[in-house]
Amino acid sequence: IGEMCRYMLASKPRAEDRQHKVRMMVGNGLQASIWRQFVERFNITNIIELYGATEGNLNMGNLNGKIGAIGCIPQCLPRSLIPVAIIRVNEDTNMPIRNSKGLCVWCKPGETGMFVGTIKQNDPTRQYHGYLNQDESQSKVIYDVFKKGDQAFVSGDL
């Protein structure tokens, strides 16, 4: 939705900008600065932003309309029930930061990290098939993420 909103904002303002019945927009990639201007000008206040990787096994959504938040990971659920996480990484290398047990470390709310999705090949919603290029596919997988022997797809996005 980001590009569409940007194009609409680039048009000359008109009296009719707020005379419509559109009440919701859903899509990917809306910059915070565009979001604010768009809502103010067109009065479409219910915007749902989604994030996902076509080739990966992870997604999340900003269902509460918080400007600048791509989504959230519920903090009220046990981590074992949540198939995605934001982990701490070295921002120079994008490599995971690991604890004394060699496992990845969850980010705290508001902390910058890497979005990852648990891989479980026996679960259709958690499978990762990868790319045609096997080397590229393997570069997107990390091991010993939250327990020894597990795997996760690495989004590459901070």
TrEMBL record:
Q: Which GO biological process categories is it annotated with? A: long-chain fatty acid import into cell
Q: What does UniProt give as GO cellular component?
A: endoplasmic reticulum membrane; plasma membrane
Record flagged with keyword Ligase: yes
Q: Which GO terms describe its molecular function?
A: ATP binding; long-chain fatty acid transmembrane transporter activity; long-chain fatty acid-CoA ligase activity
Keyword terms of this UniProt record? ATP-binding, Ligase, Nucleotide-binding
Task: Name the family the entry cites.
Answer: Belongs to the ATP-dependent AMP-binding enzyme family.
- Return the protein name: Uncharacterized protein
